[in-house]
Amino acid sequence: MRILLVEDDPLLAAQVGAALAEAGHVVEQADNGRDALYLGEETPFDAVVLDLGLPGIDGLTVLGRWRAGGRTMPVLILTARDNWHEKVAGIDAGADDYLTKPFHMEELLARLRALIRRAHGHASDAIACGPLLLDSRAQRISLAGRTLALTSHEYRLLAYLMHHPGQVLSRQELTEHLYAQDFERDSNTIEVFIARLRKKLPAELIETVRGLGYRLVGPP
Ligand code: CA
């Protein structure tokens, strides 16, 4: 998943960024409200972690402008301790959840998983798709009960497809959600990883839709 992390405290930003990457996410970071506003308007993110106290434009204003502009990605806000009215204002501005600083990294990751799941209409940590079962908490995918041996790129790609069963996903969309580095971001990369996944899965599970992209065959 592609996550936007907005935090101006460099130490906290580095810690959260590392934890998100470790959890298999692609992370983009902003340390001020202006960059955050721009990134959130221009780039499709699967979720955002947004500190409210930011230089430039404050987090509440950023969030309000995203929502006013029709951006619906799930947003988890980070608020200062004992500042209850900040939480209320954040939720009023369109936040989906909040965390009070200081927090445990495990809690942040769990809340993000829950937000991403809810955004896709799933109620539990596990997502089933035909013979495939995704456990996003353990970062594991099994086929008919057997855990697949996947590289991190293969895992991210297949997990993303499983969050959108039956939908045609273009190479560009897949690239945007799965790769952080420009050198990884050409559409041939996706073809290579799809080919590798097909060797590990029943061949008919991932369909090529000519000229449009790929589709994970959903339940009938
Ligand atoms: Ca701050």
Structure explained in plain terms:
The protein is an alpha/beta fold. The chain has two domains: 2-119, Rossmann fold; 126-216, Winged helix-like DNA-binding domain superfamily/Winged helix DNA-binding domain (Arc Repressor Mutant, subunit A, Orthogonal Bundle), CATH 1.10.10.10. The chain is 41% helix and 22% strand. The chain is built from eight helices and twelve strands. It has helices at residues 10-22, 33-42, 59-68, 84-92, 105-119, 152-163, 171-178, 187-200, and strands at residues 2-6, 26-30, 47-51, 75-79, 97-100, 126-129, 132-135, 140-143, 146-147, 168-169, 206-209, 213-216. It has a five-stranded parallel sheet with strand order 2-1-3-4-5, sandwiched between helices. It has a four-stranded antiparallel sheet with strand order 6-7-8-9, covered by helices on one side. It starts with a strand and ends with a strand. The mean pLDDT is 91. Calcium ion binds at residues 8-9, 51, 53-54. The site of calcium ion (CA) has 5 residues, from loops.
